[in-house]
Specification:
TIM Barrel; globular; binds pyridoxal-5'-phosphate; 720 residues; 3 domains; 20 strands
Length: 720
Amino acid sequence: MTEEKQYGGPDYFRMAAAFLVAAIHTSPLASFSAEADFVLTRIAARVAVPFFFMATGFFVLPQYLFGHSMDNRPLRRLLKKLFLLYGAAILLYLPVNLYAGQFEGVGIGGVLRMVWMDGTFYHLWYLPAVMWGAVLVCFLSRRLPWTVVTGVSLFLYLIGLFGDSYYGLAEQVPALRAAYDVLFSISSYTRNGIFYAPVFLVMGAWIWRVERRNDTPRGIRAAGTMIFLGLMTVEGLLLHRLGVQRHDSMYIMLPPAMYFLFRFLLSLRIRPAKSLRMISMWIYLLHPLCIILVRGGAKAVGMEGLLVENSLVHYLVVCGVSFVCACVAAVGFGKTVMGGIGNERRSFKEGRAWIELSREHLRGNVWVLESLLTPGQRLMPAVKANAYGHGAAAVAGELQNMGIRSFCVACAEEGAELRRNGITGEILVLGYTHPEDFHLLRKHDLIQTVLDHAYGQQLDRYGKKVRVHVKIDTGMHRLGERAEKTGEIREIFRLKNLQVEGIYTHLCADETRREEESAFTEAQAALFYDVVKDLRKRGISGIKTHLLASYGLLNYPELGGDYVRAGIALYGLLSDRRGAENCKADLRPVMSVKARITVVKELHRGESAGYGFSYRAAEDRKIAVLSIGYVEGLPRSLSCGRGRVLIHGKSAPIAGKICMDQTIVDITGIEGVRAGESAVILGRDGEEEITAYEIAEKAGTITNEIVSRMGGRLERVWSD
Ligand SMILES: *Cc1c(COP(=O)(O)O)cnc(C)c1O
């Protein structure tokens, strides 16, 4: 559970990459030195597009590559976005195509080739390439381990190389030449979604994984980048000299150079800048139009000598115009598309005390847990208790976006709440629903747990069809029909109004693999599967089974089941520090809690602060008041110096008793603290971190209780 990562580096590099793409299309150094221009635009600038591929791979593909996810939704969402963008771009450039007569004499086949591979304008090939590449990688990942997928994509890149910078060599072999001729009739270059994009997409996903496990020093990443870029320059110049290049996008040294460059960018500790993502995309889309604009404008005002013939000035002007157009487009688009939603100004979410959720960590945890699943097994995240305090709507929404379609909650009302927030998948209610609330189950299409035989009968008497999972008690002796009561269990399955879709049990000693726990857990599983087998023998099959929760998945993955009801681990925690220390999976906490400093004041020697003289200043002290109290979930047992908060990255002990809405902390020795700044209650601030483990230990409980009690007036915001 290591430090917070901030992936702002790639956001800034996106801008650089967009300007490099513009350089490829304007040759900024051409008026000075053809050689220098070649190095800049045909070698150095070739990092731009692979970078964009890698960013896509990094943010979208790990789930497929490592999780072997069968879920198409995240992929579909990516494709839909690209598809719309591509469609819009085709329309945008259509007038230019027509004006320049680019469709004339190419025939239907030619137009098709343009649309599905080459792009209808010279820069647009990128969009079909990401789509093809992503589809290919996801498809391969379904069936093959990631190492093989990597091998395949490298092999495709190799084929690509010999149709690109190394074509002059391939051309010498007649068979190869014929093969490439066929290829080029389908796609004008091998720099496309099949031969070029996959390796970078895969590498992006890969790096996501590597980044979680090791921390290569930034110096090595920088050195690697320089070395391989240097080698690539030598390679490019050599190939150029030899005259073997057919095109100049693909070099042998490009993938290693990109690997180090991307990792270098990730190591920069810069805040993410979302606006740059939009602006860089617009620069990429619009710069060819801007080139036309600048040329036309220069001609109109008779300044072609400066604005066009001087290649560097031309480039800079194109960049400037593209940037302005991109900003206008980004703002205009944002306003028209996003405007009108949420116009009413509500209170500032970070005004008082709030929870910051890390999307990156949540997604990472999902991927890590998914990588532990057996084939065909799925996560059914526990989002009960407001997603353990994280905010059920926000968390379940994000999980749904990631393709998860089963959830479990504690009660019917929690299920209803998810439905009201647009959650469409299966929702299993794990606990008791009062007969007065049975209508909610149907209204919101929830699945109710049959708590035991008697409850099953009660549910049946409701008289209308209800979807259920049957719970079996295999030793926890909480909910569930006792496993040995096979007669009763079979009867539940015969109840007319119950549509039984699943059967499950809950483990109660799976926190370790110590001997006694192990034996007990295995006995629980054996009992459970005996029941399943008995039912099967009686012709009851095709129902889902599940028994693992977080600890079960981490410690006893071999026990199987169709679903894994992971809760606490999904939020990047285990119940206690021992659990975290034993856990080999790289899980990261999703929640941080922060509060405003509302007042800073001196406390003179002998004075007390808070209720009941519980904090008295032995000498002059400085204190700060925070707008968070026990109502928000800060355990009152942390009062009087047992707990602490972080301000300016330093510890400030809690002074006196935690109040309902406020907390006083001692900030003596922390320089320059001002009202309006924020304090970290849970989470990281610079080098210091207050973990849920620390708070739980001090409060004498487990992290589950600490985070799920975070609520009250807390607002929730995504930090990334
Ligand atoms: C809460 C709950 C879970 C999730 O447990 P974690 O330990 O948080 O993963 C799973 N199953 C049942 C029945 C639960 O009540």
